[in-house]
Design a protein that fits this description.
Lyase, Ornithine Decarboxylase, Chain A, domain 1, TIM Barrel, 21 strands, 8-stranded parallel barrel, 12 helices, alpha/beta, 412 residues, binds pyridoxal-5'-phosphate, 9-stranded mixed beta sheet
Length: 412
Amino acid sequence: MIMELRAGKYFIDGLEVQHLAKKYGTPVYIYSAAAIIERYHHVKRCLGGDSIKLMYACKALTNPVILKLFQSLGAGLDAVSVEEMELGLGAGFLPDDIIFTPSMVGDEDYDRAVEAGVRINVGDLPALEYMNARYPNYPVCVRINPHVLAGGHQKISVGHKDSKFGISIHQMHEVLNMINARNCKVEGLHMHVGSDIQADEQFLYALEVLFKTAENFKDLTYVDIGSGYKISYKADDSSSDLEKIGSFLKEKRRGLESILGRKIELLTEPGKILVSESGFFLCSVNTVKRSPTRTFVGVNTGFNHLIRPMLYDAWHEIVNVSNPDGEKEKVDVVGYICETDTFASNREINLTSKGDLLVFKNAGAYGFNMGSNYNSKFRPPEVLIFEGKDYLIRRREEMKDLIKSVVDPMLF
Ligand SMILES: Cc1ncc(COP(=O)(O)O)c(C=O)c1O
């Protein structure tokens, strides 16, 4: 348990939550390094230990201090933009430990990735064409679209036939023709079918397709299985059976190695499962508004800081830290953004009043990183707890941050 209640007070990794809120103000993101480290080792052990490399999907949480933590653990990095790639290089990842998996980017981004020397994962035929023509000696990875509908929400299901991601398995002959005609090298094969995959069977089926497809790629040296591992957000929620996936992988990899006659490196790109539980988002109650039909708990944040509930109906447990023993009440927890801005609807939480401190759990992945300055609000600080101490790893924004890139030509 990362956050625990002891003698009426909540603690994260031994530090009192009220104290952290007072020290850094709210809203604030708090991360537990111990939880990240534990998750990293757990996931790696279950999926195959030394026989699999975890390429942290840093889109989940890109603070450079977190990147350095993963680098120190021996992880690689999955970067979906050249900006993430550059943050990764800055954090000390070697180019070969970074896989660049872009979607619909311009040629210049491939140029930058080639210059950096990272692994490049190509997910469309024109990009493959470009890479082959411009850099015939640069080996690439090919992202396939296995035509599998998997993912917890339609917006995060990305391996189905109508998704923009990956090259359709029905177009593999075109990829293979290109390889034969140009003598170019495809060293890796990749898929990522979605996040929050509800049933292991969907993932195993997609893996089956990936490994079957891999048999046709004679120069292959690695297979990247993407991610999508499901975590539990609520007490009765299920999570992916990593050990089952691990033993399936072992069998598939052995089969592929015997067909291709060489060792195959296995990569996976977990994001959420590594950082979600480590993160807590603290905010304060600005007001409690009782209407004839609802009770609204209005907090000093909004979807500008945590968009998952509004974007894809994500569920975050909300704890009223200020009233641990209070009676329960069904409320709508809403943000201050001048649009519908609902974190939780008809949710039972301990009775709230103005000034109470609330904690959103499972906020480490796709929390801060999907934040914005919408409504001209400042982004919150990030704090990392490491070995019993709290460290500010990103300060709260100020007015100067909002205007620092504005160029005023003095027209008015
Ligand atoms: C290419 C790629 N790999 C890995 C991930 C990480 O997925 P998850 O956070 O579900 O582990 C994503 C996230 O969408 C992704 O786009």
